[in-house]
Amino acid sequence: MLAGLSVIEVSCPHSMLAGQVLADLGADVLVIEPPGGAPGRRLGPFLDDRPGLEHSLTWAGMNRNKRGITLDLDSGDGLDIAAALIERADVLIEPAPARCTAHDRLLHCVLRGFSAAGPKRGYACTDPVLWAATGVPAHTGDGDRPPLLAPVPQPMMEAGADAAVGILGALAARERDGAGQRVEVSTRAAAMMSALGLPYFATANDSPPRRGQGRQAVPGIQVPSVYACKDGFVMLTIAFAAFAGMTERMAAWLIRRGDMPHAHAQVDWANYPADVRVGRQTLAPLRGLIDGLHRALATLTKAQVGEAAQRERFFAAPLMDMADIGAFAQYRERGLWAALPLVDGREVAAPARFAQFSDYRIEQRRPAPRLSEHTAEVLAGLGYSGLEIQALFHHRII
Amino acid sequence: MHEAPLKGIKVLDMGWVMVGPMSGRYLADLGADVVKVESRQRIDPLRTLGPFKDGVAGPERTLSYHFINAGKRSLALDLSRQAAREIVRTLAGDSDVLIESFTPGVMARMGLDYPRLRETNPRLVMASTCIMGQTGPAANTSGVGTLGAAYAGMSNLMGWPDRPPTGPYGAWTDSVAPRFVVAAILAALHRRRHTGLGCHIDVAQAEAGLQFVLPAWFDYAANGHVAARRGGVPDPLRAPCGVYPCAGEDRWVAIDAADPAHWRALARCLGAPVDGPAFATVTARLRRRAALDEAISAWTRLRTDIEAEATLQAAGVPAHAVSHANDLDADADLAADGYFQQVEAPVIGPCRIRGAQFRIAPAATEPARPGPCIGDGTDTVLRERCGLSEARIAELRADGVLQ
């Protein structure tokens, strides 16, 4: 897809997914790290729970299909080498403040935390802090407990994914105009995508539901969305209005199983909330549905619930853990996985194929680079002699 | 004068609810002419969901619809009618991109699957996105983004270890998947500039979600650890790191001062309660996480979230109030960045819609715009793109094909 596109990525946590998406789509991505290793190498989890610059699984999982060099960008030699590499590149990705100089055809993507010129532009930030600023955690979790942060850093994923899109948009402009482009990504703003409609409640003169409380579609009753089943939990959506068909089929399934009274077979689920509000309907059918779900689900496994939802066509899904995901026939048979070699020689499955194409396949071409793995070959390609490369190492520039 | 990157690119957006339309919005922000196909009879469910302007429900009043469909034109068709499908086929014939998010098989039943559309338009880039993808034993699963989160493993990870999972906020994969849909479309358009050929793209929303939990996946794949819910500890390698209670009802501040330099700055703010050897080293802070969190909470409780954030940031400590939805609207930093822009929507008047997710210069992205009213582009699209006469359009309308 992107064969021939040359990308330089000055590695930071927020650049990793951007570089990987471009690399998976065929671009030639070269990662620049400081001689002590990129910050991403110190992100857990670690292979066999043993730390080490070659052991970060986050690094291994987010830098496949890239090559890597080390370079001290605080040194004159380092900046010279970076300039020579950038001169030959189409794309440069780096964290703010930008240190590398752009040429006039370069697509220069800069990733920052907050705004470019607003009051929080100089804020010290890490992923949990940026996440708190999106509005998402205040509305995530249980109502009687503190807001919930994500157990896997999300802002770095959000910013990386948006950077990939922005760069490819800028590429279209360059192909047309011939001019280089600057792409600016605010991590906080990118991560606000996960807030979906939350920021719009203010304009609505409304407040979103409090953390831990679903939207009360039907007055007087809290409709749960997570239910216990035999071997874990499942998520289940009881919907009305446009999605009422899902609820009709769910109720029919429960009635057929004997888990819901026959008396509720003819409920108009599309208009049910309105009917309750005007007194044309009681809460009994919805209570019967919820009780029936608790009864039915207690006898089924996560996988059986998933199969029932697919067969009967209602909205339910197993809350899969990572072992479930590894065993899920759908992912395997669809070809999601590619074999990723780890530093110890083992191969693990990587969910590489985030998209499938009628005539292109995302391949695992190379594992994430080891620290400085390609430094010598890249410098030799720039015309540096063997002696010069040794001298750069001796002086801690590479 | 630099035009937006995708000026002149024609997109047919047959998506509904969020993933497909959000993908279309990215392309609209990049300057593409996006025509959203919808129907008054079988209304896009997003038009029935809030929040509504001034809290008053109505299909043209949904702010979620406006922000996800900003800058598009609406073509109102009854897709159950053969004549409507012919119109889509004609439009697909001269479109660059078609996005659809139906359950697999629906487009084929309408005669609008990729192999057939490619016959008349080999340059078409068609993207299909559904929960599980177009292939595999569970391909025909219906679902929304909450279920995508469940299949991606995110729902099970979010919550407290002593309680059932709470899941992430809302229809999570609806915010994740569009990035992968759009990156794939833009890469395919790039290749088309050189080969002249389009392609079909298939993005499973659950698989896209998995990209955002990669560290947890590899912890299992390589180490066999099945990640469990961690509640208030976002990262077991970091302390202090979490949310701390502030003055006021449900007010909190997030602080991450785990790096030694950040800790020293925080300790200067807190003073005596954290002085001494108890919290002097990284390991001491990890081992006494609960006591440390209590000492920090004693300080934060005396301050509002905004005061805590300001004091700590002034000292160089990563900290931010845990923003509530309605705080975002008044956030000075978002305002300075032009995140929200004032637009004028036909039925509801003034409202604030976010701009593009990133800035591109000099080829600027489009400013924020409202979403379309149902069918506001029907006549112009049929005239300009399908070459239909006024008489034919009137006939189709009388016949109920246009609605």
TrEMBL record, chain A:
Pfam families to which the protein is assigned, alphabetical: CoA_transf_3
Keyword check for Transferase: yes
Source domain of life: Bacteria
GO molecular function: transferase activity
Keyword Transferase: yes
UniProt-listed InterPro entries: CoA-transferase_III, CoA-Trfase_fam_III, CoA-Trfase_III_dom3_sf, CoA-Trfase_III_dom_1_sf
Keywords: Transferase
Protein name (record): CoA transferase
From TrEMBL, chain B:
SUPFAM superfamilies hit by this protein: CoA-transferase family III (CaiB/BaiF)
InterPro entries named in the record: CoA-transferase_III (IPR050509), CoA-Trfase_fam_III (IPR003673), CoA-Trfase_III_dom3_sf (IPR044855), CoA-Trfase_III_dom_1_sf (IPR023606)
Domain of life of the organism encoding this protein: Bacteria
Entry keyword ATP-binding: no
Keyword entries, A-Z: Transferase
One family name in Pfam for this protein: CoA_transf_3
Single Gene Ontology MF annotation: transferase activity
Gene3D superfamilies: Crotonobetainyl-coa:carnitine coa-transferase, domain 1, formyl-coa transferase, domain 3
Transmembrane segments: none
Zinc listed as a keyword: no
PANTHER family: L-CARNITINE COA-TRANSFERASE, SUCCINYL-COA--D-CITRAMALATE COA-TRANSFERASE
Name by which UniProt lists this protein: CoA transferase
Organism in which the protein naturally occurs: Verticiella sediminum
